[in-house]
Amino acid sequence: MNKRRILIVDDEEHILELIRYNLEKSGFEVLTSDDGEDALKLLETTVVDMVILDLMLPGIDGIEVCKQIRRTKEFDKLPIIMLTAKGEETDRILGLELGADDYVTKPFSIRELTARVKAILRRTEDTLSSEGRILKLKDIVLDLEKHEVTVDGEIVELTLKEFALLKILMENRGKVLSRDVLLDEVWGYDYFGETRTVDVHIRHLRKKIGDDETIKYIDTIRGIGYKMK
């Protein structure tokens, strides 16, 4: 459940496969895109822990993708490593000024890139643990340190199980979680198979956070489970 997910954006297929293979071998979950516009659409529906972004892309280039990511409050701290075939200092400075966390010039050592990925993610985790983790989705703010949930600035009283359900859904935004997985993660093995328990708690949770047809937070995936939009 806690495997870190990385999005690689590059229009060179062999680069995508090289990075994907090595990161998956290092224990990461990897998503790929060969187009800047598609990558931005993917970020709207899928939670990732880092973006490895090529500067030279067809259509929307890496610079514009980086700008749009940093303009979105939800992604203002999302780690970004920029890749480029260019080695000029001006490109490196521009990428860093736009908010990239690191910059790697092609051709690169895959071992060095993997090491940089791990170092940046470790630094991100250290920052989160020192600040206290806060999860945000639209008007919902879940503060793990205070064990508090607010919707549109108003505190919402949740039971321990409802809080745990909301937490796991927000941490896996865009990913479908089966009822059995939710049972295992929130209730433990004693409840295995009693999927109706999940449905009842999701119904109560939806009511408390104001999840309706106007503001839809949680999607029901028929016959499988639930997904945070």
List the secondary-structure elements in sequence, H or E: EHEHEHEHEHEEEEHEHHEE
User: What fold name stands as the CATH topology of the largest domain?
Assistant: Rossmann fold
DSSP strand tally: 12
**Head-to-tail CA distance between termini:** 18 Å
Name of the top-level CATH class of the largest domain: Alpha Beta
Domain OmpR/PhoB-type: 132-229
Organism: Natronincola peptidivorans
Modified residues (4-aspartylphosphate): 54
InterPro entries: CheY-like_superfamily (IPR011006), OmpR/PhoB-type_DNA-bd (IPR001867), Sig_transdc_resp-reg_C-effctor (IPR016032), Sig_transdc_resp-reg_receiver (IPR001789), WalR-like (IPR039420), WH-like_DNA-bd_sf (IPR036388)
Give a description of the structure.
The relative contact order is 0.10. The chain has 8 helices and 12 strands. The two termini are 18 Å apart. The strands form 3 sheets. The chain has a 5-stranded parallel β-sheet, with helices on both faces. Strand 11 (218-221) and strand 12 (225-228) form a beta hairpin. The protein has helices spanning 13-25, 36-45, 62-71, 89-97, 110-131, 160-171, 179-187, 196-209, and strands spanning 5-9, 29-33, 50-54, 80-84, 102-105, 134-137, 140-143, 148-151, 154-156, 177-178, 218-221, 225-228. The radius of gyration is 19 Å and the shape is elongated. Helix 6 packs across helix 8. The protein has 229 residues and is α/β, with parallel strands linked by helices. The mean pLDDT is 84. It folds into 2 domains: 5-127, Rossmann fold (3-Layer(aba) Sandwich); 134-228, Arc Repressor Mutant, subunit A (Orthogonal Bundle), CATH 1.10.10. Residues 132-229 bind DNA. Keywords: DNA-binding, Phosphoprotein, Transcription, Transcription regulation, Two-component regulatory system. The modification 4-aspartylphosphate is found at residue 54. This is Stage 0 sporulation protein A homolog. InterPro entries: CheY-like_superfamily (IPR011006), OmpR/PhoB-type_DNA-bd (IPR001867), Sig_transdc_resp-reg_C-effctor (IPR016032), Sig_transdc_resp-reg_receiver (IPR001789), WalR-like (IPR039420), WH-like_DNA-bd_sf (IPR036388).
